[in-house]
Structure formats: structure tokens, C-alpha cells
Amino acid sequence: MKAKKTIFDTDAELFSTGENFADLFNSMYTEASKLEGYVTKGTIVDIKKDFVIVNVGSKSEGHIDIREFRNDEIKVGDIVDVYVERYEGRDGLLIASREKARKEEVWKEIEKQVAENKIITGMITDRVRGGFTVDLDGIPAFMPSSQLDINPVKDINALMNKPMEFKIIKMDKLRSNLIVSHRAILEGDRAEKRDEIIKNIKIGDTMEGIIKNITDYGVFIDLGGVDGLLHITDISWKRVSNPNELFSVGQKITTKVINFDKETGRVSLGMKQLENDPWENIEKFEVGKIYKGKVTNLTDYGAFIDLDDGIEGLVHVSEISWTKKNVHPSKVISVNQEVDVMVLEIDREKRRISLGLKQCTPNPWKDFADTHKVGDVIKGEIKNITEFGIFVSLGNDLDGMVHLSDIDWDKNPEEAVKDYSKGMTIDTKILEIDADKERISLGIKQLKEDRVASSLDRVKKGEIVTCVIKEIKEDGIAVDVNGLPGFIKTNDLSKTKSEQKPERFAVDEKVDAKITAIDNKTMQLTLSIRAYEIEEEKKIMKEYGSTDTGALLGDILGASIKEAEKKSKK
Fold it and tell me: pTM of the prediction?
């Protein structure tokens, strides 16, 4: 086998030139060393099992691992780019690389693309922390997650290992550092489309878009460069409580432009506007008539009922039950339940329908009024006792109330109510029935004769009576007149101002006074000692004296006393 020839071998051709071998070798080495670190053209002179021999000129050959040509179809004589790493002078071989040459080509192309602000094609090959690895024709680059797309991407795997366009946003060849963005490509396209859309958009246009975000108050839609808001109230003529139940991010939908502000670029969209307004046929509903509907929503203040597609009415909490006051609607009805409701009011301007649920059932208050009358005695169980009265069950979920003042004639109301407890069955008398106000007033004390009221019939205003003092107060004295309560104010305690002092009287002391007022409601008398004294003085003056005689009142009183004594002795 013929030995491989190197630049160290004796060569007749070299000697025939007459050149010094050392000078020739140095010139060859100098010329070859200039190629180190550069890409140069090489000719394939031989293809072995594990390597390819390439001649790069200057009588220099390089061995390149055949694996670096795995993607190329090569043959002897082909000219290829190779990267000269270094020159090994001992055996005259060059250390070269096809891969590094290819990368140099790519880097040059990348530099060109960056200089011309152009895009480059690559593939996402792997997902790494904070982003993705992108292959740019053999050059690895990094793309942050935020630079993948304008909108959230649900299926990342669908984008892997597929050609995509990227824009270089940072490059450092020395550190082999590349950062790319696919979003920048989309935003550029988006900006162009946005300008075109804003230029041509007008109210009433029907537009197709992709949902990019869903909130509690509506849906944001990408119209191809311009974002529009589909408010929750413009989704459907029916009530929508949660947009997430109807839509999903990435979904394509058709909407109508209902408002557009060119200055701000804000676009308001509607879906229900693509359909006929159900309120155009509101005439088919009449006040006072009963219709079937389905419960769509329950709130603290009432229940929403779907009467027809897109027409909803509200049953206020006060119109749900005849007997259950301030009850939460969920205690009576449930969502999706079919119910009968009566139309109470239709406001076309405000697009509101007031409905009643209880009006579809008999009114127990009216029924009670038709079968009972004031003065009837009725038996019932005490359902509750409050600070203002006793509630008594009257059947059919009806309650009547005994006010504290109607428990007992004589006892203090706060004391009288202590004689009763929840669950006790008692007799009461009906005092008032008001079906419209849904109120029945009852009384317990009215079952007995009013001793005080009957006593009032035996007294009259202006009568002189004897009182028994029961209590001394700052503003007067409380007295008893044969079982009737009475009061004498301070300025009525005496005709003489110096004697108008409550403290000069004592409990259980008896005094005469004149009845000046009778309060049938409170069953109390107002009396006056002063008025009594003035009346007595007039009587004495009339009987024993005259204004013509000039006699003093003291003389007249003295004479009347002597006259009374004479009559007593006889």
C-alpha cells in the first residue's frame, strides 16, 4: 500500500525547483495558518467510512467527521464550506468542521436579518424554565414564555417542531446568545390590521373575533388587532349571571358593533343585537292575567321569572307569600322551577315587568275577613312574644297580635305579659280585621268587663270628689277616685301660690278636688284643688255675703261657721 504523502516527504518536484525545503515549508505553514478561525472553500477529495478528506488549498488537507455531513448528499469533487479550527504542522493536517461552517453561515444570515429588521424561520424544539428553546437552522436560541403569543396558548405541544417565524430581539455572537420573539411578529401584523380596522369600522357592522379574556362583567374579543368588549348585559336578551358558563378563551364568535369611539379606539359589541328584541311583542302580556314562567335567579329582594325568550319579570319578596313576610325566595321556590305568576305592572320605558306569585293563590286574609267579624272570640296558640305584643296563630298560616296594652285592664303591660308563654293556647277577642294591610288585632283584656271604664260612666266633668293620695311627684300628686286613677298638677294644688307644693301632702291623705278632664283612652282623670277652692268661695260669697255690703271674706266665712255651729247644736 502506498504511504500517504505529506509536506515532509521528499518530493522530486520540490527539489527540481531549486527552492529551499525549509523556506517552502514555512511559506506553506504561514499561508495555512491564515485560515485558522475562518470559513473557507474546500474540495472533497475522498470519503472514508468515518471521515471526509477535504482540500482547502495551499496543499493542505483536512479530516472532517462524516457525521457532520449527515444532512448533506456529498461526493468526491464537491466544493463545501468548512471552518478551519487549527493547523497541525507535525503531520501537515488541518482540523476543520463542516458544522461550525454551517453555523457561521447561519450567524451571518442572522446578522443580515437583524440589520435589515427582517424575520427568520425556526422551530420550537423544547420547553425550558421560563420559556422555550428555538432551533434557527442549527443555532439554538431562547424565547421567553411571554414572547410566544399575544393571547394565551392552550396547546403548546401543537406548536412544537413546526416552522414558525421569529424576530431577533437580542443577539450576542461572542457568547452565542440569541433571544427571539414570535409575539413581535404577531404584534406587527396586529398593528397593521388595527389601523385598517379602525379606519373602516362603523356602528352596525357584524364582526367575527376570538375571545381573549372573560371577566365577571363581560367578554373581551380580539377583532384582529382591535379589542372589543361584549358587556354581560349585551350577551343575550335573557339574564346572564356568569359569562364563563357560555364562553371559553379562544372561542370564535360573531358580534355586532353597537358603539365605537375613534379617539380612544374603544369598541362596544353586542350579541343579542343580532336577534329580534322580544320586547317588541310585549303586548301579548296583560296586567292582571296569570302566565306560566320559569325561575331563572333568586336574590334577597325577589325572584326573576322567564316569561318568554328574553322577557323576564321580577317577583318582589313582598309578593311571594300572603303569610310569610320577608322570607328569602329560596325558602318558597327554586331555580328552574315552573310557576304561575300574575302580571302586576308593565313599564315599557324601563323594560320592567312586576309579577306576583301569591296572587295566584287564595288570599287567606280576605277569607278570614269573610268568615269572622270584630267582637268574635277565637282560640289560638301563642307563636311568639315580642317587646310590643303577643302573636297568636289563627290557622292557615295567619297570626293575630295582642298589643301589650290589650293584655290586662289593671296590670302594668310589662308585668301582664309575664303571665303568658310561647306554646300556650289562649282565648282572644277580635278587635280589628284589615285584609288589605294583612293585619288582625286581638285583645285579651276585652274578654273581661272594664272596671275602670264602667267607673268612668259614673263620674262627670266638673264634679267635686274626694281623692286618696297615692304618690307624691315633682310635678304634682297621683290620686285615686273610687278606683279611678287621677292626677293633680302642681299649679292646681291650691288657689294660693305659696301653697302649690306637692311636699305639703302625704300618701293616703284625703283631699277634695274638682274633675276638670276625663281621658277615655287612658282611663285617667285630671283634677284640681284650686278649681274646687274657687268654686267653694263663690258659693259662700253667694250665700252669706254681697259685694254691696263691703264685708270681708274672712267675716263672711266666720259668720258661716257660726251659722253651721248653731244648726249642729239644734
Answer: 0.46
